[in-house]
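Late entry, adenosine-5'-triphosphate complex.
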Amino acid sequence: MALFHVARYAGPEAAGAGAEADGRARALLERLQCRARERQQQKQPQQQEAARTSGAAGRRRRRPRRPRRREGGGAPGSPHAPRGKRRKADGEDESAGSSEGAPGESGADAEGAGPPEDPGGRPPGEAPGTPARALLLGGCGRSRAPKVQPFLPSWLAEPSCVGKSVTEDLVPVEDIPEVHPDMQKKLRAHGISFYFPVQAAVIPALLESTADGFLVARGGYQPSDLCVSAPTGSGKTLAFVIPVVQALLHRAVCQVRALVVLPTKELAQQVSKVFNIYTDATPLRVALITGQKSLIKEQESLVQKTADGFRCLADVVVATPGRLVDHIDQTPGFSLQHLRFLVIDEADRMIDSMHQSWLPRVVEAAFPSDGAKDPFALLQRRQPRATTAASISCPQMPLQKLLFSATLTQNPEKLQQLGLYRPRLFSTGLTYRGPRDTDEDGDSGGKYTFPAGLSHHYVPCSLRTKPLAILHLILEKNFSRVLCFTNSRENSHRLFLLVQAFGGVTVAEFSSRCGPGQRKAVLKQFEQGKIQLLISTDATARGIDVQGVQLVVNYDAPQYLRTYVHR
Ligand SMILES: Nc1ncnc2c1ncn2[C@@H]1O[C@H](COP(=O)(O)OP(=O)(O)OP(=O)(O)O)[C@@H](O)[C@H]1O
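Prediction complete; structure with ligand written out below:
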């Protein structure tokens, strides 16, 4: 029988409880030592003979042999055991553990030749009750665990690939007949005659799921949720604005049918602007709820109190997560029970903010609990489940989730939090290539793509000359619109003061030091070309679309590859 000693929780109780086992172990030890001494005596004459005949090698052998095990009280394989010997010691223990019939065979030499031991046969420093030769169980080994290769679900591993270039493979607007002629006209009126590749792939896919109207999905089936991973500037916003507006164009009653959630006020404002352009001259209304206005003002844009209850005033709501939850909690009559599209833009960052529990709140508000259901309602609302004949017998109003990001995580655990239904991924990036360039999510390089035409340069310089390098780029190289990123608002402010003191450059800072109004004004001036150098924290790194930026400077290197891509 093998002796086991689990190296965990070895406390006084263990010693007390193992009194009986201790007795047996001691008897065994004594037997072992006895045999070891006999063997030692047998070997001694042979060793003396060998020592006489060999030279330097013999000298080494004559040195007192170091105890092979438990120096300084460390058990073999334990962190206290000598480093180079640990693996060997483990191996010895394993063999001892498995050779029940000959306990003394493998370890007797060492026992006999070791330093003086106490009368109980224990090596010095070893706790009473610890069996002498025991197989150690529990995380003592230092061997590196083999790296587990990620196994991605097929929808993540095999995305529909789309081009990332905004100059090649463009599709003429008229080539996608699913888009309503009025929408096409509007697109042209805004200078868009060609769809970018991402739009050409995503718009028809989304419109297909609303081909039978937005209230009931095709054939009564729940439509797939869509995920889009494409570089910044690839036209993701229009990829969801056009199909959502077109799907809702002929709605009869105003209800919140589309909800777009974004991580920052600036992004939300930008997206609501695009919705306003494409809902202009339609009955559809767009509300922006980001906390820039007072809660009451925002409530007035969402619902109106009438004699028999409340009237909804918005078809499309563009929101930041915190403020959205405020309205779910505090705005009477604000209902998401008719929600058809939930758009999660900058999805990876929104997933990071899941701890705010905004998504469960939205889902809860969108799917009334069983008690609140009206059994006579024409359309039912139920969270998607397995599709059966019974499940599609009653028409369901689906809630379709649409995720957009420049750096969509490939971490299935994170994506699972979104509760996606049969998701479909459109991606401009490569599929998983191997464990390189791991970032904070465990995401790997190779899947992020940069906008076509972007070139990267590296300027080696000391910390002291960094500000001069920036000034050189503007004053000597004549870059007129430069976006410069730092890693903290303090760094932004310091650089801002320095450049301002130097003079000759119109400079502004953009960080949480500035209020929302100031930030808005600064962005506007930068867009208009009134500011040459905008020094910013990562507040502008995501999705802020400023035309005509000539140069993006990573003044402080970003911590993660993902941040670099967004900048
Ligand atoms: N088909 C098109 N033709 C011409 N310009 C377009 C087209 N689609 C979008 N644009 C313009 O390209 C710019 C970038 O588009 P958009 O903001 O939608 O990119 P994005 O992929 O959402 O980027 P981000 O991830 O930074 O939000 C915008 O100014 C938009 O007006």
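DSSP finds 19 helices and 18 strands in the chain. Will revisit in the morning.
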